[in-house]
Amino acid sequence: MGKIKEKIYDWKERLKDRHMLTLVVSFIAIIVIMGVFIYKKQNEYRQVMENQYNMAFFELVDYVQNVENFLAKSLISTTPEHGAETLTNVWREANLASSYLAQLPISTNELANTSKFLNQVSEYSYSLSRKNIYNEPLTQEDLDNLKQLHDYSVELENTLNQLSSDMAEGRISWGELTKKGRIAFATQVSNISQDSFKNIEENFQEYAGLIYDGAFSEHITTEEKVGLTGEYVSEEQAKQVAIDLIGEEKTKQIDSNGLIENGEIAVYDFYCKSDNDNQNVVHISISQKGGHVVLMNTDRNVEVETISYEDANKKGIEFLEKHGFPNMKETYYLKQDGIITINYAYKQNNIIMYPDLVKLKIALDNGEILGMETTGYLNSHHERDKITPAINIEDAKKTLNNDLEILSEGLAVIPTEWRTEILCYEFKGKVGDTEFLVYINAENGREENILVIIDTPNGILTM
Amino acid sequence: MRKAVKILLILGIVSCILYEIYQILLNKNSYATSNATTQSDLQLIARAINGEARGESYEGQVAVGAVILNRVKDPNFPNTISGVIYQPGAFTAVSDGQINEPIAENSTVMKAARDALNGWDPTGGCVYYFNPNTATSDWIWSKTIVKTIGKHHFCK
């Protein structure tokens, strides 16, 4: 030890003699600084690569989900027009899925079968859609093939979802995925070769392709917000609406955030505290025009679930009636972490108006309303006249798939992508163990939409 | 004088090394342990919110999720959630890798992401937001500011 120290000192002295010490030290410093720079740059590049892989992966998951969803719909579609549309969608989504699959950092031979599957789905659905366009009916063989492809797609989707969860929680990263992916995709491939469609019911449960929003909730930003009626209100009046919404006794303090003019709807914003500490701030937006509740939201932990869906639903309907939303009917719901989100649609003469949508968030410990969202309702709510169907329900039924075992039927108004509304017969039915909602246009008997119902322990959702 | 220079140099080197060690340690996060059941999009949005608005109020977190979803609907941006989030240069949390930080299944950001997906939009349809203290481009100031939540200006 002492010897080394002596040697270093000796070396240092000799360098010092020839004025070399400063040079050597600064040389070392330069190397270290360069090293740090290179390390940082390399980190940055790695991050960029990682982000690209992530993007490709999540795109892939989404497209595979869509493939699966459209394949399911194509199985029960009966009219050639809608069938062709669905199959064209399968074709497009499968194409995109395979192009994103190709971007993943997993060697091609590991993915060969997955890639082949996607390309086959794509080509096959394209050829079937041509058939549909020329009005040739699909044969039993075609349908069997589609069913088989659909089963494979469910398998693939499950594998991808598992990988996605593993990544989200940090169990694997892309570096490892090149290895893990090998195993996961390999089992996937072996699953494909096995006959895997015994438990399609289970698969439908497991795949979490949930639409959190219910099927017809996409807010269509209509030019004119027909549900936003009434005179302009002052900030004081709006404040009173907010206090009524929370309840006078629960309002310890309410702060105004002023008029927010540039949003979709001009609103007065309020923050309400229900207890003295700073927890549980409730944010409320009241529209300037008409003083409608546009949004209310807060979050708190719900430890135990003591009330059922039915009770929560009852509380929700009572709440809606009390605050100026009569005749609302529950449609979809989703339950998570002790909080249930229920979608309500307006009901006029027993016809469900899906565009007129209000959502409530209810705590399952004491039934407190934690959130409310009314944009759909404010955009489109009005009393419709002329809502009588042109064709009768028996004719509409004739267009349905023979395999569909009808569970319930009714009339509903659904929004379209073109910001209009159509009156439809809504049939809820079953094929095998999977439930579907089929919408038949009440004017011309065309098949407008088919939805798959997913009944999970956490809620009823549609795809 | 010379001694002072030497000490400064050595101090500099040591601090560089310490900084790197710190960085390496920082990247080794403790892993979340809860069960994985939910959909990838939800997790992705939750992680983006976690990276972008961890210290914000609940409303501020829902707002960041809402901006992501508003972009998906907006023709000027990609049409998918992952396309929007991973669009190059769109979010700082993506560029610096904070988005990869693991999150727990029952964390607040997951709830915020769920609310955003369910349609709660406290921003009134905004597609941009920025922190006025750290914003580097002047261009962003040309947008109409709709609302300020916490540290972020939300604009159209």
Element layout with pairings:
The complex is a heterodimer of chains A (463) and B (156).
Chain A (H helix, E strand, L loop, with lengths): L1 H16 L3 H56 L3 H22 L6 H26 L6 H29 L5 H20 L6 H7 L28 H12 L6 E8 L6 E7 L7 E7 L5 E5 L11 H14 L5 E9 L2 E10 L2 E13 L5 E5 L1 H6 L12 H6 L6 E11 L5 E11 L2 E8 L5 E10 L2 E4 L1
Helix pairs in contact in A: 2-3, 2-5, 3-4, 4-5, 4-6, 5-6, 5-7
Chain B lengths: L1 H26 L12 H14 L4 H16 L7 H5 L6 H4 L12 H10 L10 E3 L14 E5 L2 E4 L1
Helix pairs in contact in B: 2-3, 2-6, 3-6
Largest sheet of chain B: 3 strands, antiparallel
Total E-strand runs of chain B: 3
Radius of gyration of chain A: 30 Å
What fraction of the residues of chain A are assigned to beta strands by DSSP? 15-25%
**Helical percentage of chain B:** 40-55%
Pick out the low-confidence regions of chain B: 24-38
Classified in CATH, the superfamily of the largest domain in chain B is Cell wall hydrolase SleB, domain 1
Report the uncertain regions of chain A: 188-222
Sheet with most strands: strand arrangement of chain B: 1-3-2
| Class from secondary-structure proportions of chain B | mainly alpha
Oligomer: heterodimer
* Proper CATH architecture of the largest domain in chain B: Orthogonal Bundle
Helix residue percentage of chain A: 40-55%
Tally of discrete structural domains of chain B: 2
**Overall mean pLDDT of chain B:** 79
Strands of the widest sheet of chain A, in order across it, are 5-6-7-9-10-11-12-13
Number of domains of chain A: 3
| Basic shape of chain A | flat
